[in-house]
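Here is an idea for our session: we take a single protein and study its fold together. To get us started, please write out a protein record for me. Once you have written the record down, we can walk along the chain together.
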Amino acid sequence: MEDGFSSYSSLYDTSSLLHFCNDDSASAASSMEVTDRIASLEQRVQMQEDEIQLLKSALADVVRRLNISEEQQAMLSRKGPTKARPMIAALPLRPTVNNGNVLPKKSSMLPSPSASKRDSNTPATKSKQREPVFSADEGYVKMYLKGRPITMYMPKDFVDTYCLDAKADLPSKKLKLDWVYGYRGRDCRCNLYLLPTGETVYFIASVVVLYNVDEQLQRHYTGHTDDIKCLAVHPDKITIATGQVAGTSSDGKQLAPHVRVWDSVSLNTLHILGSGFFDRALVCLSFSKSNGGSWLCTVDDSNDHVLSVWDWQREDRLAEVKCSNESIFAADFHPTDANVIVTCGKSHLYFWSLDKGSLVKKQGLFEKQEKPKFVLCVTFSENGDTITGDSNGNILVWAKGSNRISLVIQAAHESSIFTLCMLRNGTLVSGGKDRMLTSWDGNFQKIQTVEVPEVYGPIRTVAEGKGDTVLLGTTKNYVLQGSLYGAFTPITQGHTDELWGLAMHPLKHHFLTCGHDKLICLWDSDSHQPVWTKTIEDAAQSAGFHPTGVTVAIGTQTGRWLVLDTETKDLVTVHTDGNEQLSVMRYAPDGNFLAIGSHDNYIYIYAVAENGKKYNRVGKCSGHSSFITHLDWSVDSQYLVSNSGDYEILYWIPSVCKQVVSVEATRDILWATFTCTLGFHVFGLWPDGSDGTDINAVCRSNEKILLVTGDDFGKVHLFSFPCSQSRAPSHVYGGHSSHVTNVNFLFDDSHLVSTGGKDMSVMQWRVV
């Protein structure tokens, strides 16, 4: 408990606070002007509120630690799945809720995510497909995708006992989200905060991550159903609001964007706001400060970018107004007047006054100052002045209660200022496109400027950390920790473009990801940190480890492929086959061959020697009439099976690049892996009405009891293996907000890794 309070002391200097509050010299002298007296009182009240929040946060941290302890004890004796943590009686009374879901109170509230798009197993608007057919005489099952018959021959031992109508069982194991890699800084703002509990909070895909860097623990809020775009922390430092985009369900229906207000200790949803009111997405959120955080302001992404104010605890909309036809980058309550909101964006700065249910606009007057194309960020000084940063690199100060400029810091940065942060000690911090982090004193005199290394990218957002540390979010999706004097280290990093490639090390808890950002990253799944990263010349599409783990092959979108040494990340060799995307890189189990599946309809075969360091082309397998999607080798490395974009299943002898057409020669082959989406052992994974493109990736566990899939609806499905009964049941897991492009188990099946395409996230799941 003492350790807990000591950590807060680094966040809030309580001794100086109490000294200030009891120091008579801090009182306004009779000669002070009335406005100065008011400012002094406001500052004193704010510091007292900080002290109160410190105590609340200490309680919250104790509760969080108790919950973690309870969960760890439960895991030791668990016979079933992990349950959500209970609400602790010491916390304020709130509505009865479950993790991510609220019990409905109003007709306007959003239904549970289980009723939404991505939880739907059946695309309802698609015509019902023909039922599978079993031929006992021929020993096959015939299924239909988009009306096309796909014949899958079963092993002889299955023919006599197989029953098409038998029901498959759910798998005995489940998945629990263990770690989320990545951060959304590329196109989002003001989405990084340090909670007094020591957790850094940010989001990626549809997951909010609460990351305790010191303890190396992550917790996750998973109530959202699609991309999260904005985040706000309540003055109590416990309640959090997050807003998401509109989604599209698997049956083509639009799902409403909305705001979820939730408890960061219990991870329970408290309120859902605005379903049916907001349009497209939420882009800005902010809690009021001076009235105890009773109000929440929001801006949506409609054509008019509607600004609205909510009494979030009552789920009541107090006011709304069309804000601007142009982009809005920030909206924030004034820290000492809850009736004042400042918004900024393309060619505008507006001061809004809330009066009797109406929002009245007063435009910021630039007068002699050149009007910037974009006002990008806003914060407030200790005395209540508004401070803005713009695309001209200028910092402008607007006097409290006025819409006129009182001070200009010309050329504070060389280019756009993306973020401004006012620290508790009165230091202003600015950061922007020039990668410069600059600090300013109370008189707006420059204190220090440090440059963030180019590899991390421009500074998107700044947040105050513990003690004298600061947290930076960058446009290259890094979260950095450092000081105003430099020495930044990444605590989170991820990809910056669409992500497809995933490969698991055959002997270690390592996995590799690669994407269209040309970044190759080898991760340690235990430390959750990159072992190394490497940038290549072409967008990467696929990857596969040599069975020894000494090398890894990377396929690109240009037909070029390369092999890297997994210890040194040095280039071993580079080759080119065709000029189209290479979708699959798969080594034979004995390590003597590499099969490469291309979008030019060919499978290229290479003989491999010297533990994956020497390659000679054998030839190419020709026979598919569409692009190659998946490949699997036989256990003895003698055969290859492939799937293509037009639902073909073909078999090959890769050593001579010849197709095998004999059913009897292929039906009893033992396969080393099951990544093909079409085949007798896996056809039960296809839902009713699927068009054949819904399932992007499949993987069987190494223990041969589980089968996992990633689909176009952002879901990971866990099946029992074999999955050879029509429409087999599965456990379904959300988190991704884009198509799940790849899934794979670690070599010992302790964890599963999934990659999100356009959400650029990597998620690690514990198998429990």
Remarks:
- The chain has a mean pLDDT of 89.
- The chain is about 10% helix and 40% strand.
- Residues 34-77 form the longest helix (44 residues).
